[in-house]
Amino acid sequence: MVAGGLCQCGLIRLLCSLLIPALFLSGVLCVCLVVLLWGIRLWILRRKKQLNAAGTDGKRPLVVAFFHPYCNAGGGGERVLWCAIRMLQKKYRNITCVVYTGDRDATGEEIVEGAFRRFNIKLTHPVKFVFLEKRYLVEASLYPHFTLLGQSLGSVFLGWEALLKCVPDIYIDSMGYAFTLPLFKYLGGCRVGCYVHYPTISTDMLSVVRNQDTRFNNAAFITNNPLLSKFKLVYYYFFAFMYGLVGSCSDVIMVNSSWTLNHILSLWRAGACTSVVYPPCDVQTFLDIPLEEEKSTTEYSIVSVSQFRPEKDHPLQIRAFAKLLKERSLGQQPSLKLILIGGCRNQQDEERVNNLKSLCENLGVSNNVTFRINIPFEELKRHLAEATIGLHTMWNEHFGIGVVECMAAGTVILAHNSGGPRLDIVVPYDGHVTGFLAETEDSYAETMAYILSLSPEKRLEIRENARRSVHRFSDQHFEETFQLSVEPLFK
């Protein structure tokens, strides 16, 4: 007993004797790290003066840089980018707009021309492109496991390359790489802002893992294993903490919907500098489609417009449509047709389409379902102009540009009762109905049947209400709200 007590006392004395040196060493390392980071910051600021020369009037233009590694992609995020640049060029005279991009297979002129061709957005002044070589570091395919963490850390290295090539005065992350924000703010000395299309991780994702629900981003082999589920939950909570830490560095935060706002406020806790800026949708193109009362027809078409990706949940559309057909009287007129319109990006998307066709065969609805893949824009407009119902089934879509376009084109929209469609888009306008929401296979089938049972006059009234409501998603409204949000960065 005595020997054991002496051993314990000796161990405690040893630990105490090591504590002070350990604390001293930790302090020295922290001081060295601070000095190193401060030295890097001074070096970068000196480099900034060398790279950013004064203009012809002797004044150095304000450099505003957008971090958008896939600026030539042609999606809704790119429309936000070019509309934002166009607004800044119109509002501020002595600025230079820079885009950090990894699209090295195209020249700057080709990228600008592509933006004009796709979105009809013409810039008033040239844009400087900084081409990045390490974009592969943010490719999801590089990280088969721990994808969120891998892409986020990869974005830091990509951001470092961007910072070394051009040091801006104002930095705006327009593609969701929040981990680059502290890099540009604390090492680059920039004022930083961001436009968040969707949170990298959300409280909904945490709930899915916690409840062991099987979804496209939560595989069955994880949900069926309690230990793996617990490990993934710890990983998600750690990542959510880090995500909130880096996001709170932003001086200005813009989000694209109320759904995104709620998640960002929960994770970043920076409500004072956060605002909703709805993305610009090309509503006018669809509003140009004449809106007329339906004439007698032998066929109603139900149209879905979305890429063939797993989260879009096309199987739900097909199953609900099959249930609708089953519940209609045999030979009842008019007949129904489901038209699935979308883009295939790669072989995985093509395989997904083949699986959907097999599902149609199994359910016996192949003759009533048509797939239109990678079709021209004019054909898309024609299908929407002829459609009675616009169908959307993605759970918790952050906004829903496709939903807005269907409403602007004059269809009666039936969207998923979650995310942006529920909170921002398919909402009453001046107290009038603008569309419908559903969640399950049964509710979708029942609501489609209800819409088809309405008189043409009632459907026309809903379509007109929907059209009036989508003006708040126009380019002009986006530019006004974006300008108000970013003003603090220019003061």
> What's the count of strands?
13
Q: Which radius of gyration do the C-alpha atoms yield?
A: 27 Å
Low-pLDDT windows of residues: none
Largest sheet: 7 strands, parallel
Helix proportion of residues, in percent?
Answer: 40-55%
Descriptive account of the structure:
- With 491 residues, this protein is of the alpha/beta class.
- The protein has 18 helices and 13 strands.
- Strands 3-2-1-4-5-6-7 form a 7-stranded parallel beta sheet, sandwiched between helices. The protein has a 6-stranded parallel beta sheet with strand order 10-9-8-11-12-13, with helices on both faces.
- Strand 1, helix 2 and strand 2 form a beta-alpha-beta unit.
- Helix 6 (203-210) packs antiparallel against helix 8 (226-247).
- The radius of gyration is 27 Å and the shape is globular.
- The chain starts with a helix and ends in a 5-residue tail after the last helix.
Task: Using brief descriptors, characterize the structure shown.
491 residues, alpha/beta, 7-stranded parallel beta sheet, 6-stranded parallel beta sheet, 13 strands, 13% strand
Concise summary:
By secondary structure, the chain is of the alpha/beta class. 51% of the residues lie in helices and 13% in strands.
Give the SSE map.
Blueprint: H1 2-51, E1 62-67, H2 76-91, E2 95-101, H3 108-119, E3 128-131, H4 147-165, E4 170-173, H5 181-187, E5 191-196, H6 203-210, H7 220-223, H8 226-247, E6 252-255, H9 258-268, E7 274-276, H10 283-287, E8 299-305, H11 314-327, E9 335-342, H12 347-363, E10 369-373, H13 377-386, E11 389-391, H14 401-409, E12 412-416, H15 419-425, E13 436-438, H16 441-453, H17 456-469, H18 475-486
Parallel strand pairs: 1-2, 1-4, 2-3, 4-5, 5-6, 6-7, 8-9, 8-11, 9-10, 11-12, 12-13
